[in-house]
Fold this sequence. Notes:
mainly alpha; 0% strand; globular
Amino acid sequence: xxxxxxxxxxxxxxxxxxxxxxxxxxxxxxxxxxxxxxxxxxxxxxxxxxxxxxxxxxxxxxxxxxxxxxxxxxxxxxxxxxxxxxxxxxxxxxxxxxxxxxxxxxxxxxxxxxxxxxxxxxxxxxxxxxxxxxxxxxxxxxxxxxxxxxxxxxxxxxxxxxxxxxxxxxxxxxxxxxxxxxxxxxxxxxxxxxxxxxxxxxxxxxxxxxxxxxxxxxxxxxxxxxxxxxxxxxxxxxxxxxxxxxxxxxxxxxxxxxxxxxxxxxxxxxxxxxxxxxxxxxxxxxxxxxxxxxxxxxxxxxxxxxxxxxxxxxxxxxxx
Length: 320
């Protein structure tokens, strides 16, 4: 029986990355808007329409300071367009969005676009030169790690994820990504050591316990896998990944009743997950409900036409 063993820690990696790209584009657009607005503010300040906050009069890059005498002439410090707090907000946003250079942003977006399209070689070609100037940029380094992973370059992926960990030691994503990558390369012992680092920092991180359960399942350590999955669920009751793992564990033990309960729990939480839907088809087929199994396999394919096992399961079901 072909079972979808690929368990994504995120609900849908591609959707998550797409949402991230949209967010990046929003910040890029916002940055341009703030730049234009800031130019207007500076122009108005020069002609006496806006009094700059006193504490910022000598800040670099804020245009010429407005003299106190000019402010007094404007009505004893009365602001005619925006108040000091609003101006401080504009400055904060401007500085925040200036962290990522426009040129680097464009190259990053191109690399991310190629990654989403599955052109990992092209993404790597773009990221190569970018890493020379953006080696201390967490987003760039993380994307480089994922691209190296997809290109089968384990050592390069490890190097990138390790750099991401140095840049943001408390960020879970670098630990989770590196652990999943090591699992994909069949390095379960290294994956276990990696995820334990995150658990030491964040013992209540349910995503980390999901991966522990997955590692134990892959290593056929059933009691430990069940314990880890239940720990993940106790930390996050709506954790569909852990329920899905429990279903796989009980299915492997031929406990169809418990497997169905676990898979149904996962399905109630994530009905749009192609992996969960496919596994619902598997348990239905195991129980002899072929028509219901067919419905789930077809739904899995509608959600993900490239699902690794749903098409094979459906084809097998039709031939019997």
